[in-house]
Amino acid sequence: MTQIKKILLLTVLLFIFCSKGELIAQDNRTNSIVLIETNLGNMKLMLYKETPKHRKNFLQLIENKHFDGTLFYRVIKGFVLQGGSQDSRNAAPGRQIGYGSSNRTIESEFSPQYFHKKGALAAARQPDKVNVFKESDISQFYITHGRVYTMEELTTMEKAVNVPLKKQIVKRYLTPKKRQLLDSLKKLKKVEEFREIADKIKSNISFDFESSTDKLIFTEAQKKAYTTVGGVPHLDKNYTVFGEVISGFDVMDKIANLKTDQYDRPNLDVKMKVRILQY
């Protein structure tokens, strides 16, 4: 075999399974398709290539049959359908289900283009007080159900976040001492000095606000989705969205409409079996 043929063969081998359970390198460039089968119907989902760690982990869990026999154990209409806990498998009726015994996490993969519209697949996680980096649980997931919002509601949500944030930034730069100085310059009619200091303060405030990751500005894509199909806007930038439902929205609604107990667990168990249709 010539050297060129050897190189070509090695290149090809890099794009096939290295061993059972390992995904081929080329798969990182494509979205994956999975099927969640339940006793109320099936949902087909797409996993994003732009969230490779979550995508790979989810596919490995499917291959290991982790989800088979588990429940959608936390269902809140207008919010989310949550599943993936190993504790939910064969759980007795009325039992409260938690995260299971695993404390493994995945680094968050926030992407501005993916948000909590209806049907969004996202990773559950522990609260901020014990999870400051917003790392995802290794197996817990939820599908966003949500509701439709008006533009006025979205604007109100933006203001609720941005107005207090802006006030904090203003307070940081426009200190009592700076206010006193500006008042003094204004009384003395020292226009140039007043403008120089005022413009610098204004520039610093604007820069800090625009560069802040805490501000809330809905994109046009978010506005369109949240005012048409709906979703859960306040979850954005807090939980990693790594896929979405592409068919079976009626099934999602059926599950969301089930009666639940005090723990938000459906009175009718919704068991799942998950398989991979396309890597």
Automatic annotation (TrEMBL):
InterPro entries: Cyclophilin-like_dom_sf, Cyclophilin-type_PPIase_dom, Cyclophilin_A-like. One of its GO terms (molecular function) is peptidyl-prolyl cis-trans isomerase activity. Transmembrane segments: none annotated. Gene3D superfamilies: Cyclophilin-like. Residues 30-272 form the PPIase cyclophilin-type domain. It catalyses: [protein]-peptidylproline (omega=180) = [protein]-peptidylproline (omega=0). The keyword Isomerase applies. Pfam families: Pro_isomerase (PF00160). It is an enzyme of class 5 (isomerase). SUPFAM superfamilies: Cyclophilin-like. Keywords: Isomerase, Rotamase. Belongs to the cyclophilin-type PPIase family. PPIases accelerate the folding of proteins. It catalyzes the cis-trans isomerization of proline imidic peptide bonds in oligopeptides. This is Peptidyl-prolyl cis-trans isomerase. It comes from Ancylomarina euxinus.
